[in-house]
Amino acid sequence: MDTAFTENPQIKNPDEKTHEEYLEGKYLKLLEDVEQGRTTKKEAARQLVDEHLRQENVADHDELTGLLNKRGFEKQQMHELSNLMRHNREASLLVVDADYLKEVNDKLGHDAGSDLLKVVASVLEECVRAGDLVARYGGDEFTILAQETNEGGAEILAKRIQEALEKKIKGKYNLLQVAPSLSIGIAKIQLPHSGISQKQPKETIARILENSAKEAFKLADNALYQSKMYRNSISTAHPDGTIVTATQNADALAEAPRR
After folding, report:
1. Can you give the C-alpha Rg of the chain in angstroms?
2. pTM (2 d.p.)
3. Which residue among 64, 107, 140, 178 sits deepest, i.e. has the most Cβ atoms within 10 Å of its Cβ?
């Protein structure tokens, strides 16, 4: 028997113990099939690889919405940022939060809250361009990597998303005193110039990109926090730390205090 196949490849999904156990059982079953002549080594290896890829896909996506989850988003984001850097392209990060989700859950039930999250997910997917990444980052928070987009373009996208949700849910939440909406925080991702990156080791560039992504998320999350003070608002965080907010609420200031 081919020892390259009989040695356990130890395929694991670090986030889900059940996935590891499932793959181990799959491996043992295929190994038995090979030993009994029910399948070939090549076919067994193919099935094992296919199953591994399927399980990885499950681990990278949110079960409720079908979007990427935090794990999947961060993995794909690094790949996309590397390509953007190589071609000296811009990128912005949007962090989106569903306003009044708690009220929906409390007054209409958790099924209604889940339905709202699925509607938000569909709106985000409909509004972004091909190549942009959309994820449910956790709870009622979503993220978008908008490629080849500066702060101004991200603000236009954010406004389009808010208007699309408003149109899609019109009349569906009349039992609530307020209609669900979206608060959004924006930050541009500061990418190194390709000329600089070509002189650095790959490990160094990967670390730079990771730090750029983390800093952008921190800024966008701070901007989101300010948007949540007004609800249904869009805040943009600039590299110097200032945050400017445009709100749809009639009784709120058109521009939030800078901080």
Report:
1. 22
2. 0.77
3. 140
Q: Are 175 and 108 in contact (CB under 8 A)?
A: yes
Query: Do residues 220 and 239 lie in contact, with contact meaning Cβ atoms separated by under 8 Å?
Result: no
Which residues have a catalytic role annotated?
A: 140
pLDDT on residue 13: 45
Whether the pLDDT of residue 129 is over 60: the answer is yes
Fold classified for 70-247 = Alpha-Beta Plaits (3.30.70)
Residue 227's φ and ψ, nearest 5 degrees, are: -60, -35
Summarised one tens digit per residue, pLDDT across range 143-162 is 999 999 999 999 999 999 99
For 4, 101, 112, 168, the CA distances from 108, given in Å and listed in that order, are: 56, 10, 6, 18
Which amino acid is it at 177?
Answer: Q
Distance CA 49, CA 215 (A): 36
User: What are the DSSP calls for 164-179, one per residue?
Assistant: HHHHHTTTS-TTSSS-
Q: Answer positive or negative: Cα dihedral of 242, 134, 158, 254.
A: negative
Q: Which residues neighbour 203 within 8 Å (Cβ) at sequence distance 6 or greater?
A: none
Rounded mean pLDDT, 58-83: 92
Question: What is the spatial distance between Cα 128 and Cα 147, in angstroms, rounded to a whole number?
Answer: 10
- pLDDT of 8 over the 80 cut: no
Of all residues in the chain, what percent carry a pLDDT higher than 90?
60
> What are the sequence ranges of the domains in the chain?
3-59, 70-247
Which one-letter amino acid corresponds to residue 146? A
Query: What's the CA gap between 79 and 250, in Å, rounded?
Result: 41
pLDDT at 141: 97
